[in-house]
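Late entry, evening session. Most of the bench is empty. Finally got around to the prediction I had been postponing all week. Sequence below, unchanged from the version circulated by S.P.
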Amino acid sequence: MTDQYLWRKGDRELGPFQLSEMRKMVRSGALGRFQNVSKDGGDTWSPASSFAEIWESTELITLPPPPLAVDWTPTIIVPATTPIDLDLGLPPVSGVPPMPPTRARGLGPAGFITGTTGLVLAVAPFLIWVTRYESGYAAVPLSFLFSAVSITGLAMSAVAVRRRPGGFATTGLIVGICGCALGLVTSLGWAVSHDPREDWIRRQTATSEADVQLARRDFTATLRRYRDHLPDDDHTAALERVTKDLMVLTQAHKRLLIAAASTPTFGEHFRKLDQLRTAYNSFREAVKIQDDLTAQEAIDRIGQSVTTLKELLDLLDLQQTRQITMDSAQAKFRDY
């Protein structure tokens, strides 16, 4: 008796169907493996995949014949215009240049990017140095670092040009040269020029030095007048005037040392305290001879203190006897 199959599709029972009909529904896709099928008239139901006779049939899938076992070697088709360098140790074919190494292609863009970065970064320090912009002048030494970046880009581009001229390699070479030149100019300019942030210190030092020269000239003139005893001069007024000029000279020296404390010329100005000591000795000798007074008594008469004068001369003595260094003396005036 021919097998009869029932197919449950949703709530409906379809069939009965012959085996050939069930196979046709499988091929058309109408019947799936997990849909319920009954072979005993609906007493029991099972997934369609459990009925081997429905699925195991050569009518459902046609399989291709197995490939023959052959020694297969892939064939690479290359256009005739593309040169190939297999690095077999053979001389290149005449008229066909060998393909450059792949890494040379990457060196060109890398050198161009590195050189451009160095050039762009070097512009800012150059402009700051040229315009003497005080607030940003501390960034000028970065030109040394940016020059190194440009040199790196230049070297990479030079290697790339040697292996594969043109394109990014040549452009990177030009950009690298420009970046190196700009960084070199900025670095040398920074090294030989003074810091604009110190201009006000230089101006203040120059002003204080002029004050010292003026005060020394006035003291020398009044001391000579005090010694000469001119007939129309008031001797007491002359003593007071020369004493005041000595105090003015002392304060001028102190202001000069304070102004120069942050400059390399401090030692030069500190050694000029020898001139203050010479002026003080001349004053002390003159008041002793003319009025039989000590320098301390003469200074006390005008109501001023001799502390600053003694402090400066004591520092000079300590430095000359090597009890303190010039750096220690400079640090003292830097704290004012």
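Two things to note before I forget:
Confidence is low (pLDDT under 50) at residues 58-63, 68-73, 75-88.
The chain has three domains: 5-55, 102-193, 197-334.
Will write this up properly tomorrow.
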